[in-house]
Amino acid sequence: MSIIVIHPRTMEMVLYTKGADGAVFGRLRKAASKEEEDMRTVTLDHINSFAKKGLRTLAVAYKPVEQAEYNQFISKFREASTLLEGRAEAISRVCSSIEQNLILLGGTGVEDKLQEAVPEVLSSFRRAGNSTFL
């Protein structure tokens, strides 16, 4: 999932994205330095550590967006949004096209707690003979 943020004064644009580490790491630019490569290694180690602890993990990345790239993206996005057939796939392709050559910001690990009363509801389902999947 991504968002493009436009600075209100400078009009500079930055795309921020978050997602599964495999998806985000597959969209990163070629590392520009040893430090950038090291950061990727350390971040993956952290994400793996978080996952082993049962945390929900995400990677976060960004890239500056030039006006011409933004104009091309928004034009294609609007066109895809008006399709009567294959709209979701077209929008996904257009979004994927701008979510390339990203720069890694880091990774997160979040405890994914159940909402209030969910454990009790699941217990009731099980007692009633229903199968549940999370």
Tell me what you see in this structure.
The chain has 134 residues and is an alpha+beta fold. It contains 5 helices and 4 strands, in the order ββααβααβα. It has a 4-stranded antiparallel beta sheet with strand order 1-2-3-4. Helix 3 (67-81) packs antiparallel against helix 4 (87-98). It is extended and about 60 Å long. The protein starts with a strand and ends in a 7-residue tail after the last helix. The mean pLDDT is 91.
State the separation between the terminal residues, measured CA to CA.
22 Å
Apparent shape: extended
Structural class: alpha+beta
Uncertain spans:
none
**How many helix segments?**
5
**Strand order within the widest sheet?**
1-2-3-4
The whole-number mean of residue pLDDT values reads 91
- What is the β-strand count? 4
Give the helix level as a range of percent.
40-55%
Specify the biggest β-sheet. Answer: 4 strands, antiparallel
Any idea what the radius of gyration is?
A: 20 Å
Oligomer: single chain
The ordered string of helix (H) and strand (E) elements is: EEHHEHHEH
Strand proportion, as a percent range, falls in 15-25%
